[in-house]
Amino acid sequence: MKVLMINGSPHPKGNTQTALNEMIKIFDQQNIDTEIIHIGNKDIRGCIACMSCKKNGKCIFDDIVNEVARKFEECDGLVVGTPVYFGSANSTLISFLTRLFYSVPFDKTMKVGASVVVARRGGISATYDEINKFFAISGMPIASTQYWNAIHGREQGEAMQDEEGLQTMRVLARNMTFLLKSIHDGKEKYGIPEKEEFTRTNFIR
């Protein structure tokens, strides 16, 4: 099994990376393969609603979004990490996720999602909800932990002083591993939930 991890921080060795590394310790123990992709310092534009992806199966802007799309299809779980900026996720990450989730043609049902949020102090719960919506509307079970999926720190390395936050990351990785393995076994025994044709309605007729 493989977990794809997205680092949405502009700083490749910052506190978001510290949080993801703490999860990797557990994934390694559980024989879960991991790959971290750092996108927080990339030049990623937002979606323009051109709908080209529905015709071509990929985003019209051929950048890291399309590169990661192939890895996303192959993985069993996705971890998205971000710092908190003005009570929300890094805007580069949101542009990336919006285009990624909308443009990919494959079914994301039963891939496990987990958000990881890093803050100096506040804005964690709002950012946690912001990231989780991508999983929730895609049929992806959301991995949780013993508290918010969060760790605190501002300057590089400060997250290592947050003992509760580090423990929270380890518990999150264990819970995610359990979900991954349970879903894997469940697919073999029961398959995935039956799909219905999507009924799409508009408020304006």
UniProtKB/TrEMBL annotation:
Keyword annotations of the record: Flavoprotein, FMN
Entry superkingdom: Bacteria
Keyword hit for Flavoprotein: yes
Domain NADPH-dependent FMN reductase-like: 1-150
InterPro entries referenced in this protein's UniProt entry, alphabetically: Flavoprotein-like_sf, FMN_Rdtase-like_dom, ISF_SsuE-like
UniProt GO molecular function: oxidoreductase activity
Record protein name field: NADPH-dependent FMN reductase
